[in-house]
Design goal:
GO terms for molecular function: flavin adenine dinucleotide binding; oxidoreductase activity, acting on CH-OH group of donors. Its cofactor is FAD. Keywords: Disulfide bond, FAD, Flavoprotein, Signal. InterPro entries: FAD/NAD-bd_sf, GMC_Oxidoreductase-Related, GMC_OxRdtase, GMC_OxRdtase_N, GMC_OxRtase_C. This protein is globular. It has 559 residues and is of the alpha/beta class. Strands 1, 2, 3, 10, 11, 12, 13 and 28 form an 8-stranded mixed β-sheet that branches. The chain has 12 helices and 28 strands. Helix 2 links the parallel strand 2 and strand 3. The longest helix is centred in the first third of the chain and has 21 residues. The protein has a single domain, classed as FAD/NAD(P)-binding domain (3-Layer(bba) Sandwich), CATH 3.50.50.
Amino acid sequence: MARPIWFFLQHFAFFMFLNVIVAYASRPHGSHRPHQEPSYLKFVVNATDFPSEDYYDYIIVGGGTAGCPLAATLSSRFRVLVIERGGIAYGNRNLMTKEGFLATLMDVNSFDSPTQAFTSEDGVPNVRGRILGGSSAINAGFYSRADEDFYRKTSVNWDFRMVNESYEWVEKAIVFRPELRTWQSAVRDGLLQAGVDPYNGFSFDHVVGTKIGGSTFDTLGRRHSAADLFKYAKPVNVKVVTHANVERILVGSSMPSAVSRQSAMGVVFRDRIGMYHHALLREHGEVILSAGAIGSPQLLLLSGIGPRPYLSSWGIPVAHHLPYVGQYLYDNPRNGISIVPPIPLEHSLIQVVGITESGAYIEAASNVIPFASPARSVFIRTPSAPLYLTVATLMEKTVGPASAGSLRLASTDVKVNPIVRFNYFSNPVDVQRCVNGTRMIGDILRTRSMEDFKFQGWFGSKDFRFVGPALPVDQSNYEEMADFCRRTVSTIWHYHGGCIMGKVVDADFRVIGIDAIRVVDGSTFGISPGTNPQATLMMLGRYVGLKMMKDRKDYKMID
């Protein structure tokens, strides 16, 4: 359905604002304290320096949110290779500070930017992480453990003692308690005044009510990502190769017999100058895909693992028929409002969350944007110092979601984004949840904690100054609220699925029907874990690594 012209004008204006952010965030700021050089740089190499052939116990494709902790864990006993298509975040101010969050999302190119942009067939812009640390190196830093429903709806036989120990392993290294300032404090109070109770204080756990979650930004505003979990790695056993694009998994027969199964033998990848390299498996080794909900199903398809008729239509030799690769792809809708307040606010990313029982999570952010006049005027003197505009946002994330989409190839070149459709709000359950969430935003805006963010109008009235669409006036009208959800939908970057458990991988994350390949990332999820997935993904990397080592305890260790 065609969208009205104001929709495009609104988004054009929004992107113009973000262009200003990019220009601002790209400037050096003398007050920023640099990170100490991370220890993992000792075992990170550019792909051009990798030999043409080498052997490993485990080859992990994707140094992202799950791949880094998985590699760090396995390296305690095995020789591990991590292959990352991007570079490293260290030294990039936009990546290393919360002020650079929006600039990182917008400052993209087709080749090597830390974020790779794509737009789904639904017309919603989105991004993928292309950096060591994956999405944990570009996200808003919020950290909160999974909800109980997530564990119930997966077919994993979870060892909850190990789950908790894995979370704690992550939290001890890279998670901090945030300091609430003006906007986040007001949102916390507004949630409680609107009835999102009880108040649970600071907690990593998923609990109904209002809480302060953890943050991967420390007290100085510096980012810590999954890459920093390499502090736990055994350096002599791990190598991380950057700027390397894996083109396919090498698959062959596991033994020369009529009943043999196909098995992974390694991967082939190219470096930045186009040279090929082969990473091959040692005995009992495995290839593990941790390339995310876009990259993992894409690589399976390019390797000939997927629906036979579809692969044949691309001329890809079929290694293993697996019909559901790329199916059951999900993205949680994000809807909300943004205001320009009459008082200055600080930069704040997500720190407070309202966990409702009506299918929505409420979160907030505020950003300080330098504002420049579009043209010089003879009547206005250009100020010597920049002017700033504050934008404060309230948003809701739809739980689940229930609406499912799919992924298909756009090219046989792995560097080209696949074609993605999420089918936002195709299931009426998601519409109802969004209406519940946006109504809650309306309730929060009517609380006394929001009064300071209104402008004084004529005759003593006070109201908000909205950037973009405001909520419908009649929020009791379901159809108007549902229309608001559909026409203002955007992403919260929590997409998942495409290698769904039970259809593409089994309960041990092994690819069904083929040996020596696992998928360990969010592509195996059929539901987003709680308010924000990064905590669960980092836990998952650690957890699966521990389980794999337990399963291999009788095998020969590293030579």
